[in-house]
Amino acid sequence: MSSPVPGYDPGAAAAGDGIFGLSHTPDEARVVLLPIPWEPTTSYGRGTARGPAAILHASRQVDLFDVRTGRPYEAGIALLDVDPDIVRWNAEACAAAEPIIAAGGRVEGDADLEARLAVVNALSARLNERVAEITRAWLDRGKLVGAVGGDHAAPYGAIAAHAARYPGMGILHVDAHADLRDAYEGFTDSHASIFHNVATRLPGVARIVQVGLRDMSEDERSFTQRSGGRIVAHTDADIAGRLFDGEPFGRIADAIVADLPQDVYVSFDIDGLDPALCPHTGTPVPGGLTFQQATALLGRVQRSGRRIVGFDLDEVAPGPDGDEWDGNVGARLLYKLIGFARLSWG
Known about the structure:
Layout: E1 31-36, H1 51-59, E2 77-79, H2 84-102, H3 111-140, E3 144-149, H4 156-165, E4 169-174, H5 194-201, E5 205-213, H6 218-225, E6 231-235, H7 236-244, H8 249-258, E7 263-269, H9 291-303, E8 307-314, H10 325-344
Parallel strand pairs: 1-2, 1-3, 3-8, 4-5, 4-7, 5-6, 7-8
Helix pairs in contact: 1-10, 2-3, 3-4, 8-9, 9-10
């Protein structure tokens, strides 16, 4: 079948230099992606700041016809240029954070570490403001906006902008970790505390539905229990137990989706997948969803009639020796996110 985009052959080798080999400008595209190369609070394995570039590189090998979602590229997809301020802030914050992380976050009484912590927290707040500002600007222009991290602290501003635009929205949060810690290692905007911040700062978010969790502190579990149902956890152990008992994954996915309101924002940490699919992510944990289960879950959201109003994909990290596997998986998951989001709008 010929392409409805004049002069463009989606079955040929990538010709454009944009995401997925496309040449759409942000003004032309229906889907605008915001790269956020950010990782100062990453306390185990670094590399997620290189995630957006790794996904961009790998995306040019993704076949643009998708058997599940059709032709997402037809609406236009554009990756914004990286904001140079964010690059600079990340470098400054990473340098300030390293001694704090080495000290395990124990900064009290150490004037130098306390000053460094103040720098990281101030730069994180600045990042949140900038990401929210950029996201709002493109939402105002009628775009479907996705954020591409970076660590999982990176998209907070995007979530805040969407929550203001779509009050009452829910978040489908796929992750190995609950990210409900309060100021982990002293960092008020840690990758480990983003959903604590969402829950306590963003009243526009009606519910957070977490899927695939397999590392959670006792305090995080208590925080979930005290949320009055605003936070719902479908742990990896719960999902595995139901599968072991013979329950089809489709039925499990439908039960997860039933916990979500009509408007859904998807926040996808790549470590929610089996670590064989993301071996270089910052904090890999055994277990997790298969690629097919993850995409089936996204498909069930769309099939339910709910609307995916925005999304982020985080914690993709290329291998230290140029291994492209993580970027390859990330690019394909990103294309599925875009495809199901587009279909959900009808």
